[in-house]
Backbone:
């Protein structure tokens, strides 16, 4: 059980706790180091994560393990085409009281938890997908005119299966934008696969040990999230993040009005339909703050921003058909944008 | 909650960091100013050296164009160097960012400098200050920027080397200056044979013209006539502008090369009037009648015949100079002088001209046995001369103004010799053999002898 101090965490506490959680997760998740780090970064930055990966790469296991390690409440929703919003948020049902009277009582849905896994979220209809919007953005759900608060920390992880697109509903851009990071889980290499086989086909359990006590886990996680917000960002770093985001916007976009000091990359103009929203800049800075704490710093650096740029910006960039036909993905665009902004002396 | 003593200590630590950043900034800005100053000096010195060399090597017009282009480039270069130095100046935040990059402090310094003035500091501020101060050895000014002297000192050194090289080049190219007293500074020219043309500005020969007042008046009349005639041909404004520009460039060249002062004493041109009595034409150097005509005249002179030498009352110093001033036949040509004898005296036949040139190269006498030596055998025979051969002069066409400018580069100044050596009491002037009619029967034999 946890020996992490319950007082106001320090920079060293944060890094130590983070590494311990990572270690616990990797007891059951073989490989995917970067994905796990980004997942935890999004958690402590107060965001949500969209996990994209082919089947069998450990998406569900990852989320489950995280819940166990943090000792937080955990729910899982398998999104299907017939899933209704009420199946997520909950609904009012008629229940008999002790006195025999029947009355409508709100029955919380699976959204009421600390960690929610929306498995294959793109299989549900947009209406159902949208049910998560309010919960993700405002930590509340409204059912029949009544608003119910969700207990922090609230962390949504949605998975996408990129290869079974038939009968799926691509996520609306507004919902995509609400995910802080998009994490990609690739196939494991041979060594990782061998370890996966040996660790999952034997009799013994992975033995995930919770880092926090159940009673204080939520508060501890919230304390670490507050610490992340205290990390300092120099104006130059904020400017750099803003330039990166602006550079993802194509020059010919009708939504771009101020061209001053904007860095334009030819690839962006050619392949990008819509660039990142301002939420992308927020994600850059928050993710960079987590990175800074992990490095034992109380300030963010340009390297921190660049480190999280693909995870923070790629899913916010809408590519056009030319990009699809040329096999260009958003991560490639983000990397080009970083090079362009770094080279530009605005 | 923080105590005042804690805040004071935190401020002291912050002050230490800011002072170190300040020293880094000072060094970076020092290099920026050095960059501007050294590059400006390098450009100025290199351009000055090039202009100096051009003053020796180029003609006035080429010097004007080249110098103007070079001056323009130098001004642009200096302006850009100063501008670059100005842009290289660093603010405290910029200096901190550079220190972050070079010491791999990952934005610690720039964050501290940027947020030092903010009132509300978060709970991690003291951690940031402590953490950064713990790395103070990594961001000392000497570690962030080792150089105290800008690399721009190398171009400056190169420019100095260039300037040092330009000086001997100019000395090598500098033409010899004719100084008075070496026997080459006097020249007597007949006014009728003096051809006037506008001199190239900058070709100031330093010629001093002396003559009696009547001759000087004639010279002025002649100058006026030539000037009026030349106004028609050079009347267009473009030529005037060009001449003015050349004049300006020439004077600048002279200032740079320092040749003007030397050329002022280069030559004394004594004018003689052939239409008047020779005795009266003999003009002595007199300070009250000297008049400078620097760079305005070029002409030809007619060397008087030896027959009349005894009539001249030459100053003693002329005799002493004569041996030095005897020209060689090739020397005339090497000096770049033109022979205009035939042009100036169209009535004289070619054989006479040839004879006179030959004689001038061998000795100071003419006529007598030497008459006709070297003549074309085809023109040996003609009508007997009726005129007294002893009166025939020979003419050597030269420019009266020595060409000794670097811009010309042609080489040596030619100063014609003094030939009017008075005869001794026991010496009689040469009597040339008069040409006689040759019998037709002997002509073939004589011609064969000459051809041989």
Residues:
């Amino acid at each position: 059980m946890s020996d992490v101090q319950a007082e106001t965490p320090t920079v060293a506490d944060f890094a130590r706790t983070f590494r311990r959680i990572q270690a616990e997760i990797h007891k059951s998740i073989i490989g995917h180091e970067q994905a796990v780090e980004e997942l935890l970064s999004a958690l402590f930055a107060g965001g949500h994560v969209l996990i994209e990966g082919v089947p069998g790469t450990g998406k569900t296991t990852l989320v489950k393990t995280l819940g166990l390690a943090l000792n937080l409440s955990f729910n899982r929703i398998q999104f299907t085409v017939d899933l209704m919003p009420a199946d997520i948020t909950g609904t009012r049902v008629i229940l008999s009281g002790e006195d025999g009277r029947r009355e409508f009582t709100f029955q919380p849905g699976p959204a009421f938890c600390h960690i929610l896994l929306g498995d294959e979220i793109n299989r549900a209809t947009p209406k159902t997908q949208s049910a998560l919007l309010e919960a993700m953005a405002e930590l509340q759900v409204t059912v029949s005119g009544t608003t119910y608060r969700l207990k922090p920390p609230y962390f949504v992880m949605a998975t996408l299966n990129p290869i079974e697109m038939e009968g799926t509903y691509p996520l609306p851009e507004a919902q995509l934008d609400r995910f802080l990071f998009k994490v990609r889980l690739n196939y494991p290499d041979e060594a990782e696969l061998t370890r996966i086989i040996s660790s999952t086909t034997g009799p013994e359990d992975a033995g995930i040990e919770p880092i926090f006590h159940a009673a204080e886990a939520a508060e501890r996680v919230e304390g670490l999230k507050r610490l992340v917000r205290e990390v300092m960002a120099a104006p130059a770093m904020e400017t750099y993040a803003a330039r990166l985001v602006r550079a993802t916007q194509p020059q010919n976009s009708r939504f771009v009005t101020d061209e001053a000091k904007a860095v334009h990359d030819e690839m962006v103009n050619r392949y990008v339909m819509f660039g990142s929203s301002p939420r992308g800049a927020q994600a850059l800075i928050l993710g960079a703050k987590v990175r800074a704490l992990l490095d034992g710093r109380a300030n963010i650096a340009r390297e921190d921003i660049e480190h999280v740029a693909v995870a923070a910006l790629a899913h916010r960039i809408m590519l056009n058909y030319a990009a699809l036909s040329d096999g260009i993905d958003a991560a490639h665009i983000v990397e080009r944008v970083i090079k362009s902004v770094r080279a530009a002396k605005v | 909650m923080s105590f005042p003593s804690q805040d004071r200590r935190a401020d002291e630590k912050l002050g230490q960091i800011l002072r170190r950043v300040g020293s880094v900034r000072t060094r970076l800005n020092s290099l920026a100013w050095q960059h501007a100053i050294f590059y400006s000096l390098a450009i100025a010195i290199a351009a000055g050296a090039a202009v100096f060399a051009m003053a020796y090597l180029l003609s006035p017009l080429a010097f004007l164009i080249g110098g103007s282009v070079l001056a323009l480039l130098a001004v642009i270069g200096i302006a850009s160097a100063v501008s670059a130095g100005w842009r290289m100046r660093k603010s405290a935040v910029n200096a901190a960012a550079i220190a972050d990059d070079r010491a791999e402090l990952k934005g610690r310094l720039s964050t501290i400098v940027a947020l030092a003035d903010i009132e509300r500091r978060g709970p991690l501020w003291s951690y940031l200050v402590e953490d950064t101060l713990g790395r103070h050895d990594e961001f000392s000014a000497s570690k962030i920027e080792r150089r105290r002297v800008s690399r721009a000192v190398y171009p400056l050194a190169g420019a100095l080397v260039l300037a040092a090289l330009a000086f001997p080049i100019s000395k090598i190219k500098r033409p010899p200056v004719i100084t008075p007293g070496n026997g080459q500074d006097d020249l007597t020219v007949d006014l009728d044979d003096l051809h006037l043309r506008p001199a190239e500005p900058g070709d100031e020969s330093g010629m001093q013209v002396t003559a009696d007042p009547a001759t000087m008046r004639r010279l002025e009349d002649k100058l006026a006539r030539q000037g009026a005639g030349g106004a028609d041909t050079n009347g267009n404004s473009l030529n005037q502008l060009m001449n003015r520009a050349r004049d300006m460039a020439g004077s600048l060249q002279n200032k740079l090369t320092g040749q003007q002062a030397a050329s002022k004493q280069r030559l004394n041109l004594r004018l003689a009037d052939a239409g008047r009595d020779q005795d009266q034409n003999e003009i002595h150097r007199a300070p009250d009648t000297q008049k400078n005509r620097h760079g305005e005249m070029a002409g030809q002179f007619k060397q008087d015949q030896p027959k009349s030498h005894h009539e001249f009352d030459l100053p003693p110093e002329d005799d002493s100079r004569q041996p030095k001033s005897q020209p060689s036949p090739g020397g005339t040509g090497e000096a770049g002088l033109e022979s205009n004898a035939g042009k100036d005296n169209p009535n004289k036949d070619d054989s006479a001209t040839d004879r006179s040139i030959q004689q001038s190269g061998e000795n100071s006498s003419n006529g007598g046995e030497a008459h006709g030596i070297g003549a074309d055998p085809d023109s040996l025979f003609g009508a007997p001369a009726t005129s007294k051969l002893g009166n025939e002069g020979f003419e050597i066409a030269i420019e009266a103004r020595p060409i000794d400018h670097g811009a010309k580069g042609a080489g040596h100044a030619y100063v014609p010799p003094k030939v009017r050596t008075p005869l001794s009491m026991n010496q009689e002037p040469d009597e040339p053999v008069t040409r006689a009619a040759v019998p037709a029967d002997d002509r073939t034999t004589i011609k064969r002898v000459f051809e041989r």
